[in-house]
Amino acid sequence: MDMQAGGELDSPAETDSQELTFHWLYQRVQGLVEHSIYPKAGRVERWAFRVGALSAAIGILGSQLPDRWLPLTAALLLVRVCLAMEIGGFAIGGVLAARRGIRQFVQPRLSHAQEMDGEFSRWQAVIAELRGFPRVERERRLKYVSHLRTSMIERMGLIYGGLQRLGPFPLLIALYLQFRGWQWGDWASAFDVGALGAFLIYALVLLYLAGWMLIGLRTRLDTYVALLEGSIHEPEPSQPAPL
Questions:
Q1: 239 φ, ψ to 5°?
Q2: Which residues lie closer than 8 Å to 188 by C-beta, 6 or more apart?
Q3: What is the rounded distance in angstroms from the CA atom of residue 206 to the CA atom of residue 57?
Q4: Per-residue confidence (pLDDT) for residue 143, from 0 to 100
Q5: Which residues of 199-221 are buried (b: 16+ CB within 10 A; e: fewer)?
Q6: CA–CA distance from 6 to each of 2, 9, 13, 36, 189 (Å)?
Q7: Between 6 and 117, the higher pLDDT residue
Q8: What spatial distance separates the first Cα and last Cα of the chain, rounded to whole Å?
Q9: How far is 238 from 243, CA to CA, in rounded Å?
Q10: CA 91, CA 80: separation in Å to the nearest integer?
Q11: Beta carbons of 31 and 129 less than 8 angstroms apart
Q12: Cβ neighbours of 196 (radius 10 Å)
């Protein structure tokens, strides 16, 4: 649901004067996403993961520079600093993420039921707003977005296959390539992966992130389809007979 600057919903008069567009639908769906019974990731948690990922990228890149560009002593210092920041960033981010989501694991069924109750009421509100637009406009946009979703699934299958079924395994493979020859105390070897290993790590991480961005877009298309179908296929409230 669209939120105004003061945090209030659009008035019925403003809603009636609007045109059904995907931008309008995006604003409503964004409102559904932003409302949750669970706390969102804070700034420290987000930056901890960013610092960890950036430190890993800088450490791998710095370990591949030739000695004439970066002296060995400076490279060793850079590797140690980047390794400490990578481990610290991922550790802090992981602890904060676990503390934020502990409620889902302590009482998973209860929290899930409460989450669905809250989302269902907002879901029905968006469907009720959609029914204020002409049915033919909803059907046209449903047909269009369904076609986009089908073609997107086919194109993603050629590159990523079932990435959503792999979960974090691509990132674990990238970490294995980085730390497979590392031993405790041998800080220099943590980023001693070679040019081919560095290329594989970068390729895995970039493809993984790009794949999840596309999955997020496809999930948004699924939501558009479900809302439009709900506004069309579910029984609509009877209109009062004209006097």
A1: -85, 140
A2: 63, 76, 79, 80
A3: 11
A4: 93
A5: ebbeebbeebeebeebeeebebb
A6: 11, 9, 18, 19, 54
A7: 117
A8: 33
A9: 15
A10: 16
A11: no
A12: 9
Amino acid, res. 76: L
Two structure tokens written together for 44: 């420290």
Whole-angstrom distance, CA of residue 121 vs CA of residue 110: 17
- Quote the CA–CA distance of 138 and 229 in Å, as a whole number: 9
Rounded CA-CA distance 118/38 in Å is 11
Mean pLDDT of 204-210: 77
For residue 14 the two structure tokens come to 């403003």
- Residue 177's contacts (CB-CB under 8 Å, 6 or more residues apart) are 193, 197, 200, 201, 204
Residue whose C-alpha is closest to residue 138's, from 219, 23, 217, 227: 227
Answer yes or no: are the C-beta atoms of 56 and 89 closer than 8 Å. no
pTM: 0.58
Q: Could you read off the pLDDT of 129-140 as tens digits, one per residue? A: 998 899 899 999
Nearest residue to 97 via CA among 44, 43, 41:
41
Find where tokens 């790590």 sit.
201
The size of the chain, in residues, is 243
- Kindly state the tokens that stand for 68: 């004439």
Structure tokens at 159: 């590159």
Rounded CA gap, 120 and 107, in Å?
20
- How far apart CA 7 and CA 2 sit, in angstroms, is 9
